[in-house]
Amino acid sequence: MRTQKKYVNPDEKQIKKRISKNKAARIVFFIATFFGLAVLAVLIIRIVTQGAGYLNLDLLTNFASRNPENSGIKAALLGTLWVMSVTIPVALILGIGTAIYLEEYAPNNKFTQFIELNISNLAGVPSIVFGLLGLTLFVRYLGMGRSVLAGGLTMALMILPVIVVSSKEAIRSIPQDQYEAGYAMGATKWQIIRTVVLPAATPGILTGAILSLSRAIGETAPLLMIGAMTFIAYVPESIFSSFTVLPIQIFSWASRPQAEFQAVAAAGSVVLLIILIAMNSIAIGIRNKFSKRN
């Protein structure tokens, strides 16, 4: 008996193939997301359980000590806030100002393209290089010494390229018809930038700023290069005082052989993580507020 060959619609076959690829991609992306979240959860659980015994008020109010039971992060915590109080305004003002100039005012020629290319390349330079730059420029050439000001400016230089690039992309995404509507109403270029471009680009600008500041608050190498202290028992009184920061203090404790200091380092890591989450939450809240307004 002769069997009849089943006819397969080529379009249907292609659709099934695409559905299979889509399912495979979905599984791969799910595994990647699950793996990342699982590693993060294990890391957080590990440092919380390890440092739980030292998570108390004494950790926040005591200075560093050779005795792990009496060790605290008061100097490092306030030093971090001092450094970030210099880094945040300098990096945001210079970064957003540079992005506005390059996108709105600078002529489109080879020199401008050369500058933009170098800014993009600087975003990938290792942080230790910015530490060497800060040591040479701020500490030695400008005579700032191992101060909060030198540390804050060094960290601002490190995150500046990322803020410039992200701000440029946010400004560039504004539709051209919004510019034309502003000009049609008789507004000047600066009025359009101030009232139309910047409010619309704020969510994108803040996204880049959040990522940059998160990197700055956790970096250790640049501040070690400019000579930030690893052990001090006083609080910075001005931007010209010597200082230490949380990552350096945690690094110092973690490098000691005693198990008690490892636990204190874990407790300090939890505090650093809480500060980071608080900063990001505030910035995300501001970003969402501007997104709803637009």
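The record above closes out task 2.4. Task 2.5 opens with a second protein, given below.
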Amino acid sequence: MKILVVEDEKELASNIEAYLHGQGYRCEFAETFSQAVDKISAFQYDCILLDIMLPGGSGLKVLEEIKKQNKQDGVIIISAKDSLDDKIKGLEIGADDYIAKPFHLSELSARIHSLLRRKQFGSSNILTLNELQINLLAKTLTVNNNPVSLTKKEFDLLLLFIGNKNRIISKNALAEHLSGDMADMLDNHDFVYAHIKNMKRKLTDAGYGNYLKTVYGTGYKWEQ
């Protein structure tokens, strides 16, 4: 899962990254208003942690830009401004959640998990799709009640496909999901093919229903 941290306090941003990395998330950063707008315009994120007071402009204007571009990224405002009016304004513009500084990183992680679960998988921590069962908290997978061991990237890919069932996901989007803004610097997408090939082999060996389809010349689609 990929998270954009829009925060100009370097120490706080670093602490957030260290904690969330331990929770299995990958973070990218923007420190200013213009960096944030560039990032949200060029890439897609599972969740954006958005400070309101940024060098060069307001985080609320970044939020307005996210909505203007019809982006589906989840947004949690993280701000030292904790008045009721500030919270209402942020939520009315379109933030999914609002957490006032200072906050415990464990609470922030719990809110991110809740947002992602709600937006992509309904309200349950256990996803059951025919013979597949995924525990989102334990990050485990069983197929026909037999455990299947996936790497972190394979598990992230599986969630990406299942969270976008019946939609074609392009090779570029997959590369971006796996490598973030480094994707544009890569010569090819061989690493994407390798991760998908390995994930699919493990699922096939376990007896899943071959739901992951290759869309020739475009990308992949989870059909179910």
